[in-house]
Amino acid sequence: MPGRLIVLSNRIPTEGPPSGGLVVALHELLAERGGLWIGAASDFADEPSETFQPVAGEERYEKATFDLTEDEHADYYLGYANSVLWPLCHHRTDLLAMERRYADGYRAVNARVARMLAQIVGPEDRIWVHDYHFLPLALELRRLGVAARVGMFLHIPFPAAADISALTESDEFYQWFAAFDLVGLQTEADVARCLDAYRRHPSGEMLLDGRVKLDGSIFKVRSFPIGIDGKTFADIAKTPPAHDPVHIRADARLILGVDRLDYSKGIPHRFRGFSTYLARRDPCSPRATLLQITPPSRESVMAYQEITRELEALSGRINGQYGEIDWTPIRFVVRSVPRETLVPLYRMASVGLVTPLADGMNLVAKEFVAAQDPDDPGVLVLSRGAGAAEQMTDALIVNPYDAEDVGDAIEKGLTMPLEERRSRHAALMEVVRNTDIFEWGNRFIDALGAVKKPAAQMRETPG
Ligand code: GDG
């Protein structure tokens, strides 16, 4: 009798139907397969508890939360996860905010979640852990004697060995991943970085069957490039919006950027690239407005406050330099817009500017392509630092650090002949279809189920 599926992610939809790509996909997968979805509670607890809280709902699967105290949230989530692991994995070791209490809080929350899981997990269950918030989870479960299959999907880039060595806990970092049975990464480049890091590790060993061995632990690493529900996106995009969401002149062009307000997304570099385009632009060519939609994120982390100030100053300076009384070149919107507005904006845009400095995949790139009119599609300008660039090779691929390269790509995108736009779009749409989010989830779950034996049974005693 196969066991159940247990999904652990930082956030779960606790109220009402889920919205947003990944959350909807996990919801659908669990509805189809049954199981349990666990995530952090939205309210702080006074004292950490040792049992999950069930969440009432109508779904065909169960949901439960683990609570966090305010101190745990500060050290585990804002501290270690978002001020240490996030910059580490995005090549920003200069931003590492290392405090011993962050690492302690991170380990303690993971150990507590593992204790709660150990109370409910059966040997045939599959535990699918999402992302950098839970790296120590499998190691903690093994310490408690849990033999179930445990897989990790890392949504963000796997760091290079040189960056890992900047961590105080670099030894543990290697052990954390090695304790999983299956480690899923976004791209082949991530897999190569991961294998390279373990190859360099004094105790790392590559087995003949492709798995990786570290001391007594053996794990498999594979790429599972994440995607979107492209069909639903394309269907929504076909419905004309009830009203014009941007009100730009009929002869003007729209360039769109959509990113959480995060330093990894390269938004200042993008603004400088757009400024380069403006500086060189023929005054008779149509005006282009860059609409940058930027929902705030992790606002209490210092590095995120700094980037907001930088962007406000930069957009003000560029608008002052190039704006006209009837034209504001950059519209910098620091809030989230509803999906019903976002999708028509994708479709209206002549150019989608997706220029992160580093990004696990970047779903906006895929959403932009899915929302286009195939007969008159917009052009995707995509950073080579985004995981999506490994598959979406028919985009205009740019170096996000090079303002002139970005400026040239904007110009090329705005002036690209219709035939070329159509053929590039058709090739990109094929990629979107081939990385359907539901298929992605099923592939990971099946691969986890196919792991030969629960790792605890294979594990040798480190000696
Ligand atoms: C992490 C990794 C990886 C954004 N603004 C609005 C809005 N969004 C939606 C987009 C898209 C999602 O948020 C952002 O996804 P990304 O993939 O671009 O980036 P991260 O949030 O950093 O996600 C990333 C991903 O995990 C999945 O594995 O691709 O590399 O960093 O769906 O549409 N949605 C609405 N209004 C907004 O203003 N409705």
From TrEMBL:
Gene3D superfamilies: Glycogen Phosphorylase B
Pfam families in the record: Glyco_transf_20
UniProt-recorded name of the protein: Trehalose 6-phosphate synthase
Domain of life: Bacteria
Coiled coil segments of this chain: none
Annotated source species: Palleronia aestuarii
Biological process terms in GO annotation: trehalose biosynthetic process
Any one GO molecular function term: alpha,alpha-trehalose-phosphate synthase (UDP-forming) activity
Record-stated family: Belongs to the glycosyltransferase 20 family.
